[in-house]
Design goal:
Radius of gyration of chain B: 33 Å
Oligomer: heterodimer
Strand content of chain B: 15-25%
Largest interface: A-B, 37 and 35 residues
Structural class of chain A: alpha/beta
CATH class of chain A: Alpha Beta
Shape of chain A: globular
Distance between the termini of chain B: 30 Å
Number of strands of chain B: 22
CATH architecture of chain A: 3-Layer(aba) Sandwich
Order of helices and strands of chain A: EEEHEEHEHHHEHEEE
Helix content of chain B: 40-55%
Number of strands of chain A: 10
Shape of chain B: elongated
Largest sheet of chain B: 9 strands, mixed
Helix content of chain A: 25-40%
CATH topology of chain A: Rossmann fold
Number of domains of chain A: 1
Strand order of the largest sheet of chain A: 6-7-8-3-9-10
Radius of gyration of chain A: 17 Å
Largest sheet of chain A: 6 strands, mixed
CATH superfamily of chain A: P-loop containing nucleotide triphosphate hydrolases
């Protein structure tokens, strides 16, 4: 399902989103009055230095955290009004996550790590197909301890996409990888985005990556500092690390 | 304070719940050592002090009637330092307000001087004096049971004469610390008492002018008691001497010995359980803490800290936890030990209690606890020492798991991924899994061990009161009598059935092995009294030979058909050689059985009876009691109902106290083991569990990963715990077995069930506490940080 250029549809509508953390007497404004829309089927890169608010943004959009004020709409559901149970349901049905440190279950094989998610999904793909999509069809019976970092991250991607989520949220997916394996992982993400049409958001420190995305959103000091569309995209292999 | 030491304090503060759980288990170990050894020592010291200060005899003898002029010859026996010739006689008591007749022992005290042996501690009032009427001093337990104070009176039937005694004093004697009435199994001071009367008065009452029937002797240190006993037996033989014996066979002392043996057995069985569990818990917690602090260890090493400093740092942490445990345990042990000593002391009659609070006991228990804790820590500390700094700074590689089954068979097709996670985790850490299961099983075992005694006592009561001794009343005559006395007994109101018996003290000898006991002869038509064989089937008293109990057979190395020398102490130690024709089960006291005819034949003094067991029409009980009080030949009565109730009450009071203590201890172990293992799993797997939450698994689903494993552990622990419990109960039964008292090993199904219910409940509660933590996992921070 290629991205339709004619009718861009917002999958997320975010307005005046703020998040304040309180630790003791210190108040940290992690995100301050952010408003933006995310378009269905697009790959978006979120850029910004540490503490700029991009992770906070991703956590709220992914249903891992709650906003202090503002609203987030996922399609016609208002995430910001969801309780804990509804957020669990939302994550289960609509969102796939990929983390910097993979977070695979060490006691489950690659195939089982993916099946973990497909077992509880409504319309999953086969675990084997998901692994094939990231090029790991020959590593399915391996435990995490038997896989390289790049392979582990690809299992994590397979696990995230196996339930056919509408949104794939990646927090520094290449942060712990060298350039060569990083490119393989980005390839897998691009492939998923193109073939499944999954709306994808990737957080990164690496500005070089931004050119593979449809859209780039930059954060600074908890605020939106820039948001632009890439006129032309490059392939992951062309990324200068 | 050094920085590393500050870290210890903060670590303990941070891990307080786990530290407390481990410290409490250690405290149980320390407390049980202090309690059991402390109570043992206190009672032992108290007894020794009482014996020593009040000159408890070391050799005892009795005769029918021996002349007082033997005194000089007795005192001349080598090693004898003091001898007291006394009159000791059984009497019937008629206490106002008591329908049933009580029984007692009247003991003479010398006039115008102190007794040399078995001196009395006067709690209240004074000792009786001659020439002031019939004055008595009664033992404290009897006075307390009736609320007597000096100035009160009570009735007796002494040698057939009704007599009112005036109480002038309340006393305690080292001879009757544990005083058991005839036919009783536990002391019942309400119906049995000892009292002291002036020699002059008692001599008159029993027609014992110039003679005595009881002898107590003190000896010098290192005296060969065997030869003293031999000399005394030779002296008393012409006067109906019943065979001298030393403290080991003195009734009160023998019971105290048995009790102290039991306390000692407890000190050996219980504390090791706690020490083992605490070592295991220390191992578990410390290895986890060190895994988490791997990088800190690398940093310490990089900064130039030596291996000893770093190893010492973690050792100190364990030592601090152990000290917390030792402090709690010492306090609890002191408290429990004092309680236990008081409990025992209230059961016995001591004039004072010495709480033996020697420091060595605390040092000992602290040392043992600390050793157990450090032995649990050795492996973890060693792993820190050998860890190269560069490796330590790198994160640990992911744990390697294995497939559950060899080949292509896919386990996950049968179970969900969540269950597979639980199973793989078990297989990955088999030792920890087994130890956790074993630890939980130990708490089940501890409960079985403390609860089974109810089953055993019930069984014992059933055997003794409903199978073996089914009479309502046992009458003992003042002497062995001719058969015609039975006619008198038959005439007593309400008597339905009378079964006579004859009892005589004997010594059984097989080679160099000797045992003193009572030989009981029963008639063939015996119905009220039954001898039970080892399989609990009733057997007839044998026409020839004698039946002995298992314990006696064991100790004397006798088998069926063997000949044994029966030394008839009442017949000038004449020896009859008799075959063993049966082995019986017996729980209380030492008894051998024969048939009436056989014993009469051996005794060669005609058809004699010592007493009768009686079945009675309950409606006429009051009349019966009245008549017994008027019948001079009856020296004592034992009422089975009262004995049974008192037996149950006494034993259960003892057991209930101990059981409550053990239940608390078992719950502490369960919490210690289950809570800690769940917490550690949670810490190790927080990342996994948080990931599951992120993927959209519910709290219940995520908790189930841990709970499945805990459930497997707790369920497997049950049968293992039952088995261990049975084995521990067996060792308790063996540890408690003495010549005088043996409890059967009976564990009913409901005891196993209750043990499991308690442990399952404790496990459930600790699981719920951990569940709450899973519910509050901070998803974001767990996932963002590298483990």
């Amino acid at each position: 399902m290629p991205v339709s250029k004619n009718k861009p549809r917002e999958i997320f509508k975010i307005s005046h989103l703020s998040k304040i953390y309180r630790t003791g007497e210190v108040e940290v404004r992690a995100m301050n009055d952010v408003s933006l829309d995310m378009i269905e089927g697009e790959m978006t890169v979120l850029l910004g230095p540490s503490g700029s608010g991009k992770s906070t943004f991703l956590n709220i959009v992914g249903g891992l955290d709650q906003a202090s004020s503002g609203t987030v709409f996922f399609k016609d559901m208002e995430l910001t009004s969801f309780n804990e149970r509804q957020l669990t349901r939302y994550r289960r049905d609509h969102v796939g996550f990929v983390f910097q440190f993979y977070n695979l279950i060490p006691s489950l094989t690659a195939w089982e790590n993916v099946a973990l998610v497909t077992e509880v999904s409504k319309n999953p793909m086969k675990a084997g197909d998901a692994l094939a999509m990231v090029g790991l069809e020959n590593r399915m019976t391996h435990f995490p301890a038997q896989l390289s970092g790049g392979e582990q991250q690809r299992v994590a991607i397979a696990r995230a996409i196996a339930k056919r989520p509408e949104v794939l949220l990646c927090d520094e997916p290449t942060g712990a990888l060298d350039s060569k394996t990083g490119i393989i992982v980005l390839d897998a993400l691009t492939k998923v985005n193109e073939e499944l049409g999954t709306t994808t958001a990737i957080i990164t420190h690496n500005a070089g990556i931004q050119k593979i995305a449809h859209r780039v959103i930059s954060f600074l000091d908890g605020k939106l500092s820039n948001c632009h569309e890439n006129k032309s995209r490059i392939k992951p292999a062309e990324v200068v690390w | 304070m050094r920085v590393l030491d500050r870290k210890i304090i903060r670590d303990i503060w941070r891990l307080w719940a786990q530290v407390l759980a481990v410290a409490l288990v250690m405290a149980c170990g320390a407390a049980t050592i202090i309690m059991a050894v402390g109570a043992y020592r206190s009672l032992d010291e108290t007894r020794d002090a009482f014996y020593d200060r009040y000159k408890f005899g070391s050799v005892f003898a009795s005769a029918v009637r021996a002349p007082n002029h033997l005194k000089s010859r007795i005192e001349a026996i080598s090693g004898v330092s003091g001898a007291e010739l006394r009159i000791v006689k059984p009497v019937l008591l008629d206490v106002i307000g008591m329908k049933e007749p009580g029984s007692g022992i009247a003991v003479s005290i010398p006039d115008h001087r102190m007794t040399k042996v078995n001196q009395l501690y006067v709690r209240q009032g004074r000792l009786p004096e001659p020439g002031r009427g019939v004055e008595v001093a009664v033992v404290e337990s009897f006075a307390k049971a009736h609320g007597f104070v000096p100035g009160d009176q009570f009735g007796t039937i002494i040698n057939g004469k009704k007599l009112t005694l005036n109480i002038v004093g309340i006393v305690l004697s080292p001879e009757y610390i544990y005083s058991l009435g005839p036919g009783e199994m536990v002391p019942n001071p309400k119906i049995f008492g000892v009292f002291y009367i002036s020699e002059e008065v008692l001599r008159g009452l029993f027609d014992m002018e110039g003679s005595f029937n009881d002898l107590s002797i003190t000896t010098m240190r290192n005296t060969e008691l065997e030869s003293v006993i031999k000399d005394i037996d030779a002296l008393l033989e012409p006067y109906g001497g019943v065979g001298a014996y030393d403290r080991e066979d003195q009734a009160s002392n023998a019971f105290l010995d048995a009790e102290l043996d039991q306390l000692r057995a407890m000190a050996k069985i219980i504390p090791p359980i706690f020490l083992f569990v605490s070592a295991f818990l220390v191992n578990m917690i410390l290895s986890r803490l060190i895994a988490l602090e791997r990088e800190h260890v690398g940093l310490f090493k990089a900064l130039g800290y030596g291996n000893i400093a770093i190893g010492g740092h973690y050792a100190k942490l364990v030592i601090v936890i152990a000290i917390i445990g030792i402090l709690i345990g010492s306090g609890a042990g002191l408290w429990l030990g004092m309680g236990l000593t008081r409990l025992y002391a209230s059961f016995y009659s001591y004039p004072f209690l010495l709480f033996e609070q020697s420091y060595d006991l605390y040092v000992l228990s602290a040392g043992i606890t600390l050793t157990a804790a450090l032995s649990g820590a050795v492996k973890s500390i060693w792993s820190v020492v050998i860890l190269p700094p560069a490796v330590a700074m790198r994160p640990q590689a992911p744990t390697r798991y294995k497939s559950l089954f060899v080949g292509r068979m896919n386990f996950t097709r049968i179970f969900s991924q969540l269950t597979t996670m639980a199973f793989r985790h078990i297989i990955r850490w088999p030792v920890r899994f087994l130890m956790t299961t074993f630890g939980t099983a130990l708490s089940v075992a501890l409960l079985v061990t403390s609860l089974f005694s109810y089953d055993s006592i019930e069984d014992m009561i059933d055997v003794i009161f409903f199978q073996t001794d089914r009479q309502d009343v046992t009458l003992t005559f003042s002497d062995d009598r001719g058969q015609d006395v039975l006619w008198l007994v038959n005439k007593l109101p309400g008597v339905v059935r009378v079964e006579p018996f004859r009892a005589t003290p004997v010594k059984l000898k097989n080679g160099h092995r000797t045992m003193q006991m009572s030989l009981l002869a029963l008639s063939h038509e015996t119905d009220l009294s039954q001898i039970l064989d080892i399989d609990s089937a009733p057997m007839e008293p044998p026409k020839n030979g004698l039946v002995i109990s298992e314990r006696v057979a064991d100790k004397l190395h006798l088998n069926l058909g063997d000949l044994v020398d029966v030394v008839l102490t009442k017949k000038s130690n004449r020896i009859a050689s008799l075959p063993i024709s049966g082995i019986a089960q017996s729980y209380v006291g030492l008894t051998a059985y024969m048939s009436f005819e056989a014993l009469n034949r051996v005794m060669r003094d005609g058809q004699r009876v010592s007493g009768a067991r009686i079945k009675i029409d309950e409606a006429k009980l009051d009349e019966f009691y009245e008549a017994v009080k008027e019948t001079p030949v009856i020296a004592s009565t034992a009422l089975q109902d009262i004995s049974r109730d008192k037996f149950r009450e006494t034993i259960e009071q003892n057991i209930t106290t101990m059981t409550s203590v053990y239940i608390v201890l078992a719950v502490i172990i369960t919490f210690g083991v289950i809570y800690n293992s769940a917490r550690i799993q949670l810490s190790e797997r927080a990342r996994e569990l948080a990931s599951l939450r992120v993927f959209g698994f519910t709290r219940a689903e995520v908790s189930s990963v841990l709970m499945v494993e805990l459930a497997i552990i707790v369920l497997l622990a049950q049968p293992l715990g039952w088995l261990l419990g049975y084995a521990l109960s067996w060792s308790v039964v063996k540890g408690f077995e003495t010549d005088l008292f043996r409890i059967p090993l009976v564990v009913n199904a409901n005891t196993f069930a209750w043990a499991s219910v308690v442990v399952l409940t404790a496990a459930l509660v600790s699981a719920l506490i951990v569940r709450r933590r899973i519910d509050h996992l901070d998803l974001i921070s767990v996932l963002k940080t590298r483990e």
